[in-house]
Amino acid sequence: MWLAIDIGNTNVHIGVFEKDALQHAYSLKSGLPQPLQMNLAQILNPATFSKARAAVLSSVSPKVEASVIEYVQKYLLIKPKSIGKDIPIPIKILAEQPENIGIDRLVNALAAFERTKGWTIIVDAGTAITVDVINDKGAFMGGIIAPGIDISSKALHHFTALLPEIAVKKPKYILGKNTGEAINSGVYWGTIGMVNRLIEMLCDDLKCQPAIIATGGNADMLAEEIPHITDVVPYLTLDGIRIAYKTILTSNTQY
Q1: Catalytic residue among 6, 104, 132, 239
Q2: Phi, psi of 178 (to 5 degrees)
Q3: Is the distance from CB of 146 to CB of 137 less than 8 angstroms?
Q4: What is the b/e burial string over 152-162, where b = at least 16 CB atoms within 10 angstroms of the residue's CB?
Q5: 21-29: strand order across its sheet
Q6: pLDDT of residue 250
Q7: Does the structural domain 98-240 have CATH classification 3.30.420.40?
Q8: What pLDDT, in 10s, does the model give residues 199-227?
Q9: Distance set, CA 6 to CA 9, 25, 86 (Å)
Q10: 150 in active site
Q11: In this structure, how many other beta carbons lie within 10 angstroms of the beta carbon of residue 197?
Q12: Which CATH number fits domain 2-82: 3.30.160.340, 3.90.1150.200, 3.30.1280.10, 3.30.420.40?
């Protein structure tokens, strides 16, 4: 048994693997260090996970990563390995400034290519929305980063004097009859329209019809409205962590 841990800006996803097989997956809010460790204790109970032999992290949040590492080391007696620091990502990067590319985007690309074996667009609908491209050799070509649903809603509230913060959901009508409905419609359909158009523009630019995979907390919402999306993979990042870790295990290294 080993653990794959995907640390995002909003959520932490934990995958429990037996060799290559994902047995269980858990999700919790990142939160502050102490509440986070309390939530980790409910999921990663030392009595249950005492046989875990490794923990491998993919993180885009250093503070949350430090809290997770502290818990795993203290209670599970495992020294976690971080993708990109302790474990290299086995993917060719054709984009510029590779050191600044989010680990989650590269790990997603790794997992997506194992599924498609061809040109692929990956839409990760989380705190931010990323739309990334991998070529038919599995190389990361680059991508697009835009505000996610929650960021857009919060920004309208925080950067204006009177607009309320709302929980975005699918509107009954395109035309909002009050301020809350207007914000909801704008954020929801604005996000759908943006992602749909970005996919179309990328397909035109690539001059091919790539596979299009969605992941992240709002992936189902996008897939429901955007017919270009061919597959929704909830735990794509966990699968990418698995591939990176497996590559190390089979390369006759100390891991």
Answers
A1: 104
A2: -150, 175
A3: no
A4: bbeebeeeeee
A5: 21-29, 11-18, 2-7, 55-59, 81-82
A6: 74
A7: yes
A8: 999 999 999 999 999 999 999 999 999 99
A9: 10, 11, 15
A10: no
A11: 11
A12: 3.30.420.40
